[in-house]
């Protein structure tokens, strides 16, 4: 609390947090620092916060800050051999986020009884990055160096949380690291609805659409995505015709007014 008649403001935020980077706009900085608003008392502002944590956010129930998949641990119960390297993992953690591993470990297949399973056609470096995401290792981030192979692995092992993390990254930084054509292709291929809509919104001129259609990425877009681009062209033409008609109507009205002037 504050004395001197200082202004008070109370905020309540309820959040279901599943990301490391979180922020909420409760009051704008300009308003807070404006002396007319009377939040500042004796050149200071007092902020009191009450935080209630109702429970862990799903996959963060165990701390995995330092993981070593290359050695056995009290948590590992199966070995995955990738590119000749043994990786010690826990079945339950992998099965929780991957239908592939859920079926492999608990679907009644021969592998469900084995303590060592070989996974072919994988890079051990890339697969280790995937494991860190699945385990929820603190500090693991999607970036321009890993999002493509993460999508490939998420496809193979059916891991939705990886798709979600990659789409968030591309929505935030996609236009910095990729062309619109490439972004649209990724969004189309992986059914990233929000990202796809944002890409289509950026095609607001004939020039931008023409540039997209000249790209190699356009050739491998799905038929439905190409149909949406055709719809954009039709909308642009309709808007152009409407503007021309409006302009023509204004000119005609002006011409008629000149003709209707009374003679001297």
Fold topology:
Elements: H1 29-33, E1 78-82, E2 85-89, H2 91-97, H3 99-106, E3 116-119, H4 124-135, H5 147-157, H6 160-177, H7 180-190, H8 193-201, H9 206-213, H10 216-219, H11 223-259
Parallel strand pairs: 1-3
Antiparallel strand pairs: 1-2
Domain BTB: 76-135
Region (Disordered): 240-264
Protein name: BTB domain-containing protein
What's the helical proportion of residues?
A: 40-55%
Shape: flat
Strand order of the largest sheet: 2-1-3
CATH class of the largest domain: Alpha Beta
Pattern of helices and strands: HEEHHEHHHHHHHH
Count of alpha/pi helices:
11
CATH superfamily of the largest domain: Potassium Channel Kv1.1, Chain A
Q: From the 3D structure, determine the CATH topology of the largest domain.
A: Potassium Channel Kv1.1, Chain A
Total domain units:
3
Number of strands: 3
Low-confidence stretches are 58-63
- CATH arch. level architecture of the largest domain: 2-Layer Sandwich
Biggest sheet layout: 3 strands, mixed
Q: Ends: how far apart?
A: 80 Å
Radius of gyration: 29 Å
Strand fraction equals: 5-15%
- Please state the structural category: mainly alpha
